[in-house]
Design a protein that fits this description.
Blueprint: H1 37-54, H2 56-61, H3 81-99, H4 108-125, H5 137-141, H6 156-166, H7 173-202, H8 209-223, H9 231-242, H10 247-276, H11 292-304, H12 310-334, H13 342-351, H14 361-378, E1 394-398, E2 410-413, E3 423-427, H15 440-447, H16 452-462, H17 468-471, H18 476-492, H19 500-524, H20 530-541, H21 545-557, H22 564-583, H23 589-599, H24 604-616
Parallel strand pairs: 1-3
Antiparallel strand pairs: 2-3
Helix pairs in contact: 3-4, 6-7, 6-9, 7-9, 7-10, 8-10, 9-10, 12-19, 13-20, 14-15, 15-18, 15-19, 18-22, 19-20, 20-21, 22-24, 23-24
Length: about 625
């Protein structure tokens, strides 16, 4: 299981962590347990250990690779076909176990936790017909479900160096030795992936030519770097030096492992990918794969936690794109910008030199400083949308240069449970032309505050939810839908009152998420070509062709994931309207926003049940 910026982190007593005094409200007595709670809790305790053992990277990301779990710090997860079989067996057994624990014997909190885990198990169970790529409960929870074992944005070649650099902490000799063990483990992961790439090719599952070309280019670039200069070696050298350990010795040992083991395994994987190129087609959609139409419906369910059909999602995108475009047209005309389509006018606005940071190292530094200023500026206004008082520390960094070609445009890695590592907001600065100044506020509020960083901070700083809810929490439509809702909140609390261009950027970002609904379903259900999808995105999003090509390639590798944003955002707003109508004078925006954050990552159906309970209780939450 890989944990990334969308995996919300929660603390719990079982993890040996105490709730922080976050000012989130006075402590209240724990609700009385029901007769069945103890049995469910025992099962979840055992399940947590099983999930952490299967995902050493997850344990490290959460800061849970200590004490009795210290051995996990030296390991990486299994990437062979065996982990696919184990995941599906876990889901089948888990569903049988939960069926034996009827809701009637559980407290409301336990029923909520059970419903969340059950939904995740059902996703994993229903992945069984799709015997290729990465289709498991764990991949569904980490938003990495997709048809290809290795792509331009996925695989050990890019994931492990980033993980070890950003998340594996080195404070002692044992930590440094564990790092070296993981570099060795990376070679094993690469070999296992290569075996699966070949197995999938036998089923006719080969990435399209443009994905293969990008992944091959990135791997060739990595192999061209002398082992001593590889990130795997230099990151360890930096870490041990900071810890007061003999840097030269550890860096030399890491270099030897990279040269003899990692590069050998990577060269073999590169050769396997190159061997597929003559057989690779140009069609981007998964409709061409075995059982492809059913596979995309499963991916849409993973991405949206709904049963919406591809046509319903496509039409939602068309309708919302049109409505948002009308708002943008009015704002543009108010500024005297009347010539061309909305997309053409936004493209022209984005190319205006006054709206673009220089595409130099100095310009990138200016851009990063601007992002830090945005975060500082929103903090004083948060009490207009929440009663929660959270610290929510966050660091802003550029996406590492060695993975920027295949990485997303912007993303966030949540901080560790123990507070030793803050959240990190990454932005891809391959070209500053992709980031007109007016586009940056909305992205920043999405990734940091009041978006993803705020989500994670409530959970990490208060410890309100049990450990099982972090390990089974990657419900994309909630996580990304909330962050898109946070972009809306930024507008509602006045962040654009004196910034017409920033408000246009916010609406463009909302429109872009509607565009995603259209192009994702277009690619995978309506058999659009890559070029058709890129052109539709450029015409309607008003962003650069380079940026939209990167996005379309992302949707080709992880179908359905990009649909969760607007579907989730739409549902959160629908539930807000329901709460407003149901509560009348008792409705308080801050109470509703607090409720959504406190609920944690859940399927949208479960969120609707929580909001209904909140309405029935007269606007009082027991979370």
């Amino acid at each position: 299981m890989s944990l990334d910026r969308r995996r919300l982190m929660t603390a719990c007593a079982a993890a040996g962590l105490s709730a922080a005094a976050s000012g989130a409200g006075p402590a209240r007595a724990a609700p009385a347990a029901a007769p069945g709670d103890a049995a469910l809790d025992r099962y979840f305790d055992a399940l947590c250990e099983e999930l952490l053992t299967a995902s050493p990277e997850g344990a490290t990301s959460l800061g849970l690779d200590t004490g009795k779990r210290a051995a996990l710090k030296s390991k990486l997860s299994d990437s062979s076909m065996a982990h696919i079989a184990a995941d599906r067996a876990l889901c089948r057994a888990g569903l049988a176990k939960l069926a034996a624990l009827p809701d009637a014997g559980l407290s409301p909190a336990a029923r909520l936790n059970k419903a969340v885990v059950q939904y995740a198990f059902e996703l994993g169970r229903d992945a069984a017909p799709f015997d290729y790529g990465e289709n498991t409960m764990n991949s569904a929870m980490s938003e990495s479900a997709g048809p290809y074992v290795v792509s331009q944005q996925g695989g050990a070649y890019s994931a492990v160096p980033e993980f070890l650099d950003s998340q594996h902490q080195v404070k002692t000799k044992a930590d440094a030795e564990a790092y070296l063990a993981r570099v060795h483990e990376m070679a094993r992961q690469l070999t296992q992936e290569t075996e699966r790439v070949k197995k999938d090719a036998g089923l006719g599952v080969i990435p399209p030519d443009f994905i293969l070309s990008n992944a091959i280019g990135q791997q060739e670039g990595l192999l061209a770097i002398p082992a001593a200069q590889a990130r795997l070696a230099t990151a360890l050298g930096r870490k041990v030096k900071d810890a007061g350990l003999p840097a030269a010795d550890y860096e030399a040992r890491a270099t030897a492992i990279v040269e003899k083991e990692v590069y050998s395994a990577l060269a073999a994987q590169l050769a396997a990918l190159k061997a597929l190129q003559p057989r690779a087609g140009h069609d981007a959609g998964v409709w061409r794969l075995p059982n492809g139409e059913a596979y995309y419906r499963w991916l849409l369910k993973v991405g949206t936690s709904t049963n919406l059909t591809p046509d319903e999602v496509h039409n939602m995108g068309l309708e919302q794109n049109k409505a948002i475009e009308a708002r943008m047209d009015g704002l543009l005309k108010a500024q005297g910008l009347t010539q061309g389509t909305v997309g053409e006018r936004m493209t022209a606005l984005g190319k205006d030199p006054k709206n673009v940071f220089p595409n130099t190292d100095a310009g990138r530094d200016q851009l990063l400083a601007y992002l830090n200023g945005l975060i500082a500026g929103v903090r004083p206004r948060l009490d207009r949308a929440f009663t929660l008082k959270l610290k929510a520390p966050v660091v802003v960094k550029r996406v590492p240069v060695d993975i920027q070609d295949g990485a997303g445009q912007g993303y966030m890695n949540t901080g560790s449970l123990d507070g030793s590592r803050p959240s990190t907001y990454y932005i891809n600065l391959k070209s500053t032309a992709n980031w007109p100044k007016f586009s940056l506020p909305s992205l920043t509020y999405h990734e940091t505050i009041p978006g993803h960083t705020w989500q994670g901070a409530y959970l990490t700083e208060t410890g309100k939810l049990p450990l099982i809810r972090i390990l089974v929490s990657g419900f994309n439509a909630y996580v990304e839908g909330y962050a898109l809702y946070a972009e809306q909140l930024a507008d509602e609390i006045g962040m654009y009152d004196d910034d017409w261009a920033g408000r246009l950027g916010y609406l463009q970002a909302q429109k872009f998420r509607a565009v995603r609904l259209v192009v994702d379903t277009g690619l995978h259900a309506k058999r659009w070509t890559r070029e058709q999808a890129v052109q539709w995105a450029v015409d309607n999003a008003g962003r650069t062709r380079e940026a939209m090509t990167s996005e379309i390639d992302r949707y080709s590798g992880t179908p359905g994931q990009a649909c969760g944003y607007k579907v989730g955002h739409t549902e959160i707003n629908r539930l807000r309207d329901r709460a407003k109508a149901g509560l009348g004078a008792k409705y308080d925006l801050r109470g509703y926003d607090d409720l959504v954050v406190k609920t944690g990552a859940v399927p949208l159906t479960v969120l609707a049940d929580v909001v209904d309970g909140y309405i029935k209780a007269g606007g009082v939450s027991n979370l």
